[in-house]
Amino acid sequence: MDVKEALKIFALNHGDDALVLSHRITEWCGHGPELEEDIALSNVGLDLLGQAQSLLNYAGELGGEGKNADDLAYRRREREFTSLLLVEQPNGNYANTIARQFFYDTFHYYFLQGLKNSQDEFLKGFAEKSIKEVAYHLRHSSKWVIIFGDGTDESHQKIQEAVEQIWKYTGEMFEVSEAYSTLQKANILPNLDEVKSNYQTKISEVLAEAKLKIPEGTFMSTGGRNGIHTENLGYMLTEMQYLVRTYPDANWD
Amino acid sequence: MDENILLENFQKKVDAEIKVEPKDWMPEKYRKTLIRQISQHAHSEVVGMLPEANWLTRAPSLRRKMILLAKIQDEAGHGLYLYSSAETLGADRQDLIEELLSGKAKYSSIFNYPTLTWADIGAVGWLVDGAAIMNQVMLTRASYGPYARAMVRICKEESFHQRQGFEIVANLANGTPEQKEMAQDALNRWWWPSLMMFGPTDDNSPNSALSMKWKIKRKSNDELRQDFIDRTVQQAEAIGLTVPDKDLKWNEEKGHYDFGTINWDEFFEVIKGNGPCNQERLSARQEAYNKGSWVREAAKAYAAKKQVSKAA
To answer: In a 3-state reduction of DSSP, which class is residue B20?
Structure first.
């Protein structure tokens, strides 16, 4: 696989992750557990939306068909989306949302840390800007994991269940595809084993402070990067793409 | 000191345009009026998030989605500042929120109307935020210091909200025939309720005189409404939309638009709880509050544990 093709795939993969997760976050807007939290979570959603826009525009440029981020977000079908299964999982209760966010933020943070050394100028700049945002995301979600774990019996139980439920979707983040390995060889993407090792250290620390058990399950679901999603994604896209699909010739600006 | 002398001094101070600050003496009625008004405003910001969030997951471009999310986030922030300014008057945020959830406290009736199409998101920004700004600009000069200062900050953000709303409507009005129809339909539905946002006519607004005397308000409901109409009619014309009022006509002599009769029966029905979405809005707030209670309790319990371990 040539580097340009691989880069396009990578930009789509990570752009889709940010897009889909930000969409889930917007579903909370106006319905959060308190106003301060509505504001904090919206911040995370806004950052991810901005990142999705950058990466999808980049994927569009690399694709050479004149597509921009909106074309890719609003006019692709469910089998063409390459986001992780993790990020499309429904919001559930606030512990489910926080657990999903925590695992993704931890991965995202250490991934971007490695990406800051990328040989690709765009991705290097993207990582330098985004890591400041994601450092905040990680502080926010790990704070809540600890509060829930070490808060009341009820919150402890809810976050432990949430961690167990989402666990099987956390393996996919570390899969090395053909595109990934092409880019890693070209020093464009970080070594995923190193990212994983930092990730494991961090989640062990946070879960220990939260007095939570690390799940023992070793089975990991996969498929998102190849467009094989859970049933959740189709409904999300139906909603997200409704206007653009209903009025295909209209411009929404 | 004699209550009458205090009152006289208070009025002198207000007349001299010196701001009233939290620890200053103030008439009990002034305090109560402000708590009621500020908390209603805070509730309106919070409830007002709902009709807009209704379109967040269907926003038709990434840019629009970001702008809308940022705008709703601002509103949550406005709610927070306003609850804080009510607290400077001795109110408690928790009590105020409970009054909202029990249905005892009011919020702006406009948010009891549904956002049915994407164009409604434009109309809410253009008309609803546009009407709110008329009122809020006036309130930046309110006699109560913390309220006036909160308003300065809020107004800056509101003017961005109004602009983005107008931009959405203008974009639709210049779009495909279907988009233009969507924009006109939204204007038709939001125009009259927006005019009602300024409250009853002056001869029907018993509390206004005292608020004017104490310089909480500086313009009457009818004056503000007229300013809004004069400004907005021209904006509608500029983008080729028709304001749904057959009696609307420029009055050269007065230098203002004459306009038709507002349906005040509708206004009072919505206030009584019979608007299209009163129940939905209140139950959405109640549900968020109830579902969030274990989260807030966890945060409290955790903070208490940390306090103990720090003290030890």
So the answer is: strand
